[in-house]
Amino acid sequence: MSKMKKLTIAKLFKDAKSSKNAYKCGMFLLHNGTVRVDAKKKVREGKKDTKKVTGMIFDYDKKKVDAAIKKALKLPGIHYVKVWLNNGKLKLGDDIMLVLVGGDIRPHVIDCLQSLVGEIKSKCVTENELY
Prior knowledge:
By secondary structure, this protein is of the alpha+beta class. It has one domain: Aldehyde Oxidoreductase, domain 3 (Alpha-Beta Complex), CATH 3.90.1170. Helices cover 35% and strands 31% of the residues. The chain has 4 helices and 6 strands. It has helices spanning 9-17, 40-45, 62-73, 106-124, and strands at 27-34, 55-60, 78-85, 88-91, 95-103, 125-130. Helix 3 (62-73) packs antiparallel against helix 4. The longest helix is centred in the last third of the chain and has 19 residues, at 106-124. 23% of the residues are buried.
């Protein structure tokens, strides 16, 4: 696990519910990415002959993540966004990221979470699976 301080899901929700905009949020939605045994090539591309994952090297660009968060907070109905990312050499089951979004109604929150996690995964992080 990385040297970064671990943020628990309970703490994440506690902070969200006590934030200045909590009263505007009718829904909070969480994404918890973890290191899994099945390689991306297997689960995303259907390649059945891939080796099992034993761990991951994970890192991120803080400036890009901060920009993605600012962009997410500009989406309609979104009033709270918190992102925690791990880094370093991770083992199976370790948390890769926690992303919590709060907003007025379900469609806005779901759309924001999907957009934000997609941007983080495609533009802000590097994930190197170990075999």
